[in-house]
Structure formats: structure tokens, C-alpha cells
Design brief:
This protein is an alpha/beta fold. 27% of the residues lie in helices and 20% in strands. It has a six-stranded mixed β-sheet with strand order 3-2-4-1-5-6, sandwiched between helices.
Length: 161
């Protein structure tokens, strides 16, 4: 059994004239990442945490790692996750070490929405910023990655009145 936790990076700021890769989180992005990560305390136990190296994704990931008390040694940045189609994201998943049973990935749309819809059993029109989707797979090897069961979704709007 393998478990994938996808997190789309939190809301980014368009306030600065900088490259897409360097865009920071907005104030709402920071607060959503705090809100969602705190809701997940004691619910996640990743063996590995991978994040796009884009500023907005790695900042979101850092907030989760801190709030969930995840060991810093298992947190790695991966340039391939700066992906919008899902092709590179799938390659990262399928080449993951088989000793990893729970993999937490921070990435971007449309890659995240595409992969959760193609490999989960619940259609999601659009995974929103800071949205979390957890899918479980009846596989022993990541290279055998196939359709699994969507066991949880958590979006910022679910926690706001």
C-alpha cells in the first residue's frame, strides 16, 4: 500500500515584478498554509516530502514541515516538480524509492489537478491553492503507479465560515 498526499502551493502574490519561479506567497497564502497544515496535525506521517523549488511551493512546504513536526532530513526540493502539465510530476512519483510508503508532494496546477483526476477515484474540477488531496494505492512499487482511491480532500474553503 502506498499513500500520496498532494498539496497545491498556497496563494501567491502578484505584487512584485519578478519571475514566476520567484513569486512569494500572499498574506492569504501564508494564513491558508497555517490553517490547513494545523488541521492535518497527527494525520500525516510522510516518509518523504518533496516540493517544487519555486518560492511559493517551497514556502508552503516549509510551513507544513514546521507545523507538522516533520523531520527536516526527509524534506527535499525537486526542480522537476516545477511542472504544470503533470508529466514530470508522474516521473517523480514513478521513480520514488519503494521504501517510501507515504509521499507528500507540493506542486503546481494544472499538474496537481490532472494527476489527482487521472489517478484518484474522485473528480475534482480544480484543486484550489493550498488544497490537499490524499490518494491510496494498492501497489508495492511506485513504478506500478495506477488508479487509486481518493481518501481525503481538504481545501481552505472547507475551514472558513
Amino acid at each position: 500500500m502506498k499513500r500520496l498526499i498532494f498539496v497545491r502551493h498556497a496563494k501567491s502574490s502578484w505584487e512584485f515584478n519578478i519571475s514566476d519561479h520567484e513569486r512569494p506567497l500572499s498574506n492569504r497564502g501564508f494564513s491558508d498554509a497555517q490553517l490547513i497544515s494545523r488541521k492535518l496535525i497527527n494525520q500525516l506521517n510522510p516518509d518523504s516530502v518533496l516540493s517544487s523549488d519555486a518560492m511559493r511551493a517551497k514556502t508552503t512546504a516549509s510551513i507544513f514541515v514546521n507545523n507538522l513536526n516533520i523531520q527536516k532530513e526527509i524534506f527535499k526540493l525537486n526542480r522537476s516538480l516545477y511542472d504544470f502539465s503533470g508529466e514530470k510530476l508522474l516521473r517523480v512519483i514513478k521513480t520514488s524509492d519503494n521504501s517510501i510508503n507515504e509521499l507528500l508532494i507540493f506542486g503546481h496546477n494544472n499538474a496537481v489537478t490532472s494527476v489527482v483526476n487521472n489517478y484518484g477515484d474522485k473528480y475534482i474540477d480544480n484543486v484550489p491553492t493550498c488544497g490537499v488531496v490524499i490518494i491510496e494505492f494498492e501497489i508495492d512499487n511506485w513504478k506500478d503507479f495506477k488508479k487509486g482511491k481518493t481518501v481525503m480532500t481538504l481545501f481552505p474553503r472547507d475551514l472558513k465560515n
